[in-house]
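Below is how a single chain appears once it has passed through the pipeline. First comes the sequence as given, then the structure the pipeline wrote out for it. We keep one example in the README because the format questions we get most often are answered faster by looking than by reading.
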Amino acid sequence: MALRANHINPLKGLKDYGPYSCQLMPVNEIRVAAIYPKGTRFILEGLFKEFSLTHDPKERKKYLPDYSGFEAVFKSKIHLSPSSTCVELEGINFSESKSPYIILSEEISNALRTISQRKQDFDVLAIYFPESWSSAFEDSDSGFDLHDYIKGTTAMMSIPTQILRENSVISYNCRCSVMWRLSIAFYVKGGGVPWKLSSIDQETAFIGLSYSSRLNKDTGQFDFITCCSQVFDSDGTGMEFIAYDATEIESRIGDNPFLTRAEMRKLISKSLQLYQRRHAGRQPKRLIVHKTSHFKSQEIDGAFDAVNTNIDLELLQIVQDHPWRAIQHVKYADGWSVPGYPVKRGVYVQIDQQEVLLWTQGQVKLGDRNNFYKEGRGIPSPLLIRRFAGKGGWDKNCQAILGLTKMNWNHDGIYDRLPVTLGYASVLAKTIKKMNNLTNKPYEFRFFM
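Resulting structure:
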């Protein structure tokens, strides 16, 4: 891969140039162990054979390139581990149980304990679930969610996992789409970096803040708040986060807690330490903090307490729900008209000294005559960006947010609406609620994907 190569379509970039990490820190082989129902190994063997085949797209044809095989694209091999490194689930019967999720979670727990003893023999763990077990995937009364349960459990074991559902993976019609999604996921979970941001300063760090409250059903009160700080850099190699239980909350508005000055100082300090650990002790020159709620004065003061004067600190609130909308007007020879595509992705409009509207959804030019709108229909809603600290123009901030909407390695889409700093936040907050024994240490996000 040429280190300066870039492409607006990340999938075509992978095909043309290979993954970003193939020359820097190559992943030569990805060994995939598996947990699956007894008698279904042949299904996984068939799936893994597809990684060596070519597949043409049957959907999103303007965007999705043909898949030319895992090794051809990622310069790495992938294979299903032998039966001795896998675990079969035997004799599970939900038909007479009022709580099938309990039966399945216990069986999965036993299988995970068994396979965790063989961690040195595989890189990623795949877990296959047939749709006939779907009654055990969720329980509305207890709040059980199988995905969150597995991710929370395996994260504590430092095992990256890929859940394979029958409907979304095995029997999904467009095999090209399935192969792209799974290939990126397995590559990242196996330690690879598929692409990075080309437009972000190398000495800029991004922090996404999120909070998760746990409700005590006996008292009806929130027992404690888990603060979650994700740290990112332009390479995407710093996708780690810290979570810890806060002891001091200044106030709460709905589900949004606000930290005291001391707690915010602690959270930002921990985040900077995480960045320095990944960058040989070097601090960033610019630190940008994102969260969905506004910053109170105590939080602003705490953030500035945590950084030295050589770091440019910016605190940005990113709001999804607001009344702003816009359509595109184009001037032709015979007057103005509304074209068949929405506002271009990346357009921003300043509406106040400290507020802008940024369209992270919208028209993307994938070629001279290839206008692509991921959502397909509807009028895209912009994000409202509100600045609570920082100065200067909005170009770099909007460019950074736009770039971070392309850094979700958990799917094959061209962009998300939210930057990855906040898009991952909802995933983490949801999963962390299920982790009763959360250890105060950095976690790699690949364990939660």
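Residues 207 and 231 are 5 Å apart (CA to CA).

See the next section for the split statistics.
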